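Quick one: structure tokens for this chain, please?
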Amino acid sequence: MKVSYHGHSVVKIESEGKTILIDPFITGNQLTDLKVSSVKPDVIILSHAHGDHVGDTIELAKEHGSLVIANAEISTYLTWQGVKTHEMHIGGAYQFDFGKVKLTQAFHGSSFETEDQQIIYGGMPAGILFMNEGKTVYHAGDTALFSDMKLIGERHPIDVAFLPIGDNFTMGPEDAAYAAKLLNAKTVVPIHYNTFPPIKQDPQRFIDMLEGNNGKILQPGDSIEI
């Protein structure tokens, strides 16, 4: 399984001939190496409804017939936009032909903003567990630190965990380092930092806080094999 990072919270998983894209914020993302015109996801998984995570989902899904996996509220909204979806919710798992997906809790908000300045509720935010080929990838989404991360790690031994470190909107480096300890993942990768001024961080500082030698900084476009 090949897993790559593409700036902000964008993660791509390539497994058994399928491309799974998590939180495809491409347009307007100054840190990404991706272009909407060159991305062809089979599957898109969304952690929550904020614009810097839903990103280009609708355009990509319509262009390529991608299946979008998200909570029930986001799925309903996207279905109204003509997108093919599979709705899930926190704690639920589903075995697809490309792998197993489970949504975990996350502590954050979730909403769409309309052009006429309306807020549409986007359901509960989620973390994402993707399991295939005997491997497990955990994308924490946007979240604060919470103690049940230890339970997630115990129930689902994690090969690579993508954790937000930007602070202000999510965990900062200190809390993310403690989250890494709770999760006990084989590899920990920082995400959701440096995209906007309020989340400016030095990822090496986060890596230096980790108790084990299991942290890895991925630049946009970098990948790891697990």
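The chain has one domain: 2-212.
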